[in-house]
Amino acid sequence: MTRQLPLPLPVRVAEGREDFFVAPANALALSLLDAPETWAQGRMLLLGPEGAGKSHLAAIWASERGAVIRAAADLRPETVADLAATGAVVIEDAQHLAGRAASEQALFHLLNLTAAEGGRCLITAPHAAARLGRGAARSEKPP
């Protein structure tokens, strides 16, 4: 029986625009990220399954706009004002907010503050907001 031999290849982090492969499936998302002035109320929800490139696109946008990146699970009410004051915020994996009242409220206030101050907020999630937080319930019982 043959065995696959592991090769000691270096790992390179690919988070820049030059590392992003633009394809028909993601070209619209990239063009919208390049025009945040067109976002309704300064907000954009970037959707896609795991591994689709949402975090890569968010990292590109954050780097080019000087945005702060926060995991949704780390969003706290006491940090909202400071985050909004940065003018550009990325909230990654919004599905982790669902069902957590304080975190949901923090996101609500963050969205309102960034809009009021003319800032931008990019949010990533695997699916539409109406389905966020239903992953566990979906595995137990179909919707």
Overall structural class, as computed from helix and strand content, comes to: alpha/beta
Succession of helices and strands: HEHEHEHEH
List low-pLDDT spans.
135-143
Distance between the termini: 46 Å
Mean pLDDT: 84
Principal-axes shape call: globular
Strand line-up in the sheet with most strands: 1-4-3-2
Q: Main β-sheet, in a few words?
A: 4 strands, parallel
Oligomer: single chain
What's the gyration radius in Å?
A: 17 Å
Describe the structure.
By secondary structure, the chain is α/β, with parallel strands linked by helices. About 35% of the residues lie in helices and about 15% in strands. The chain contains five helices and four strands; from the N terminus they run αβαβαβαβα. The chain has helices spanning about 25-35, 55-65, 80-85, 100-115, 135-140, and strands spanning about 45, 70, 90, 120-125. A four-stranded parallel sheet has the order 1-4-3-2, with helices on both faces. The radius of gyration is 17 Å and the shape is globular. Mean pLDDT is about 85; it is low at about 135-143.
Could you outline the blueprint of secondary structure elements for this entry?
Blueprint lengths: L26 H7 L9 E5 L6 H12 L2 E4 L8 H6 L2 E5 L8 H16 L3 E6 L9 H6 L3
Parallel strand pairs: 1-4, 2-3, 3-4
